[in-house]
Amino acid sequence: MNVLVVGRGGREHALCYKFYQDESVSKVFCAPGNAGIAAHAECIEIEETDQQKLVEFAKKNDIALTVIGPEQPLAEGLTDLFLAEGLKVFGPTQKASAIEGSKAFAKELMEKYSIPTAGYETFTSFREASDYIKKKGAPIVIKADGLAAGKGVVVAMTEADALAAAEDMLEHNRFGASSAKIVVEDFLDGEEFSFMCLVNGESIVPLALAQDHKRAYDNDEGPNTGGMGAYSPVAHLPEHTEKKAMNEIIKPVVQAMIQEDNPFTGVLYAGLILTEDGPKVIEFNARFGDPETQVVLHRMESDLAQLLLNLLEGKTEDVKWSDDTVVGVVIASKGYPDAYEKGHSVQQILDTNAFFYHAGTRFKETEVVSDGGRILLAAGSGSSVESARQHVYSALETTTAEQFFYRKDIGHKALKRS
């Protein structure tokens, strides 16, 4: 079969590489792709948001399955158009993608159906938000309601930081329309982990757990980013964690969407935290997580394309996984997640002994150069977190590119608990 992946980042590279390996797939296309994706798929010069051209391409090229990577085309209704044209697509409708596109929608849904999450209030007025923050105190969490590329969350450890974040979003339009409304949440203490599930209505196929590292710098310091690294599996979590999350969070929210006449098809990403009271929801995303997808799919031995097609027909099956641990370290442009430069050569990094998923790269003539904040993810495998870390970090130690940086402590929580 021919498969089309929509997107240009590291998550899409992981999808293309997996489909490239799948026996059921004869040809992989990616729109628009990047320099690394070009090694595993034919890159098509169509933007993720050019809905009509994507549909026309899928029809002309006998695409059996389209997988939509980024959140923006989902929020703009790309799935709806594909479905209207009778095309097989894996991704939620515009209405269902609101579980990611609006933090307030997700919180209201969880409140209505008693799905465990942090207490919260929503605000459009800075004065009212300020009064609430002062009443609650810190630590406290401030979130932009809409899409903000993974950067719209501030975990404020002081009241002053919380007030500054709320003012930045509501008064200074930090994320434009996405922060015209904010959600102010209680701070939850515990171990964070990511649980992605492939969903079609009531049918659910769980993927392996992963743990992301959101802060820019070592020791979980600095601003929130789209993710600076991840690893899978998360072996140090209690054995019952996944089962409990499935029964108390995933299944109830899938049923809640059906009850609301808004059934979900696609990847339901649950960003969770294991508290003393059990797992609770930090956030839901409506697509594959990035960088979790890179480390999770790197371990998958099942044929993903066939798995998704079967799921679209309501058939579920167990996923086969490698026993290896995979650690992924993001290489980012200096200055990320704030201002950064593009166009620097990444060849010296690519020449090291690691497997690279490309996130923000392009060709400049024959050379691969940076084209984003997060540029690459270096993946290392091993029989444990320690050996996988040794694999990836020993490779990266040989590079000295000053225009880039990476965290040196991805997987450190697992080492402390192993």
UniProtKB/TrEMBL annotation:
GO terms for molecular function: phosphoribosylamine-glycine ligase activity. Its EC number is 6.3.4.13. Pathway: Purine metabolism; IMP biosynthesis via de novo pathway; N(1)-(5-phospho-D-ribosyl)glycinamide from 5-phospho-alpha-D-ribose 1-diphosphate: step 2/2. SUPFAM superfamilies: Glutathione synthetase ATP-binding domain-like, PreATP-grasp domain, Rudiment single hybrid motif. It holds the Pfam family GARS_C. SMART domains: GARS_A (SM01209), GARS_C (SM01210). Its cofactor is Mn(2+); Mg(2+). Residues 107-313 form the ATP-grasp domain. Keywords: ATP-binding, Ligase, Nucleotide-binding, Purine biosynthesis. It catalyses: 5-phospho-beta-D-ribosylamine + glycine + ATP = N(1)-(5-phospho-beta-D-ribosyl)glycinamide + ADP + phosphate + H(+). It comes from the Bacteria. Belongs to the GARS family. This is Phosphoribosylamine--glycine ligase. It comes from Jeotgalibacillus haloalkalitolerans.
